[in-house]
């Protein structure tokens, strides 16, 4: 099992834009309204912290490889090499470069009309990291940090996310 996790602040930011673009989902007039819903577990897919907490039980399982979105953005070649090794695939240098290129956000966004139709524009927005800094107030940032620490801060997955997001930022 490949478990891809992401900074909860960017997850919230991405969900905000996604839910407002998808008519069947609840939309929010303001970021502040969305933030309250996100922090009070009123998301259609549940609470991200609870999701991470449940997956943390399997973090040491030899059949589970955890990688962060931030790791893949920082070094996609190393990420693909590690994923291939985990699944027992050996890739030539040419195959490795092809996978890295074809799985890049830019490539997937470019092909999203073919692969996902009109839904592609909703799924592939920016693909960056730290976009949360454009929406979060200082108070919201502190509340998210506190919730992170309370729910998963001392867990294996929490430690991995903290390292990727805070120590490398």
UniProtKB/TrEMBL annotation:
GO molecular function, one term: sulfotransferase activity
A Pfam family of this chain: Sulfotransfer_1
Keywords: Transferase
Residue ranges annotated for the Sulfotransferase domain, each copy included: 1-155
Class of this enzyme: transferase
Transferase among keywords: yes
EC number(s) on file: 2.8.2.-
Keyword tRNA processing: no
Family annotation (SUPFAM superfamilies): P-loop containing nucleoside triphosphate hydrolases (SSF52540)
The family this protein is said to belong to: Belongs to the sulfotransferase 1 family.
Xref: PANTHER family: SULFOTRANSFERASE SULT
Protein name as it appears in the record: Sulfotransferase
